[in-house]
Amino acid sequence: MKGKTLNLKLKVWRQKSATAQGKFETYEVSNISTEGSFLEMMDILNEQIISNGGDPVAFDHDCREGICGMCSLYINGHAHGPDEDITTCQLHMRKFTDGDTITIEPWRSAGFPVVKDLIVDRSAFDKILQAGGFVSVNTGGIPDGNAIPIPKEDADEAMDSASCIGCGACVASCKNGSAMLFVSAKVSQLALLPQGRVEAARRAKSMVAKMDELGFGNCTNTGACEVECPKNISITNIARLNREFLSAKLKD
Amino acid sequence: MANLFSSSIGRKLLMSITGLFLIVFLLVHLTLNSFLLLDGVLGFEEGQMFNAGAHFMATNPFIKIMEPMLAIGFLVHIMYSIGLTIQNIKARGAARYASGSKTDDVEWSSKNMFVLGIFVVSFLVVHLANFWVKMKITGDPLLHQEASFPFMGAEAHGENAYALVNTAFQNIAIVIIYVIGCIALSFHLSHGFWSAFQTIGWNNTVWLNRLQTISKVVAWFIGLGFCVIAIAQYLFF
Q1: Which of A24, A228, A236 shows the shortest C-beta gap to B98?
Q2: What is the ipTM of this complex?
Q3: Taking the CA of residue B159 as centre, how many other CA atoms within 13 Å lie in the half-sphere pointing to its CB?
Q4: How far apart are CA A56 and CA A43, in angstroms?
Q5: Which fold has domain B8-90+111-236?
Q6: How many Å lie between the alpha carbon of B209 and the closest alpha carbon of chain A?
């Protein structure tokens, strides 16, 4: 089975290091299969650059199955490119047409400084998780799986929130550089379950405090994050985080 | 409660509560403005209802308490919006996307709340200069015209606020400024109303769409309500 092929012009952000001045470089790639993934197209571009003796374009990627959250390209005005509910690795080249010019940029937000080319430092998300995105579990015998009954609706909603892969598309798409969608998903996935309720108040307070400390912006509920989120995380999670945080603070 | 207002969500809570408070004020204001049109319908002489309403607002002790509260509400809402917006500009960083932002389904007003707010504040300054300053501070010959109206079951005499308003709205330039100001207000509220509930935490998957719809209805009811009254005053009174 052989699909169509594309010839494309790529405008790629090149930046040698975190402190270096970056600029766009234009490349041309040809014979790109419409069946391929965007990252496979990037691989072909890099092979081409290497064989010409150049420095390949640095970009983040890992599982290439849409679940790790590593790939992070801002393509033609969209985080993860012009398709719904997918990560960049799941973006097919059939979304483009022959002769297109594709602009490829790193996430742009003060919270995610560029490391090199298209790679940004997203360790701020790890710091927020370390501040409270966990449940404390004592060692001992394995508890029975059904010992704590959980309503199906709650389990489903917690699972929906837990599908956040922490890719940072929400921050990248936000005009306020706010991390509220990420933090709210990570608070919700535990707040909805009895095991997570125990530390819920402390969790909401410390994760929000860390988010503020790291310089992420204040959410103004534009909803751009929800639209660009590859995992369809709803902004109703943000309302839940606000609820959790405010009730925790009012009890202090 | 410790440090609530030093957190991002705490500061946004202040924006929500003051915003909703200001919306309540707008509804009271709109009710009073509707008196400008209702004399004929309810069998009063032109201006009687509005003058009675203005007299009530000027003499009622509850309103006297609410007046400084309202000023504080405006100040908190404006000051915090400036602070939060500066933080957001910093958080966004200096670098911009060369390919822009093509995210669909984002309300236009939600992306322009601060600019719309500047429009509303500019309008507020004109509005206060037109009426509030004259009624409360400098006085105006129009206010001293003879005005009598039924008040609390008796005939009362007071300032002729109707004459001041009616005269102002005979000027087409003022009417146009009011229409522009009130349309900006509508856009501001169409996002602000539901956003306030979201920030307070009163939202979920069921209420999200409902609140967004209610928000648009409330916003345009208020904004267009003020516009219609100003235009009707210009055309028919």
Answers
A1: A24
A2: 0.93
A3: 19
A4: 9
A5: 3 helical TM bundles of succinate and fumarate reductases (1.20.1300)
A6: 11
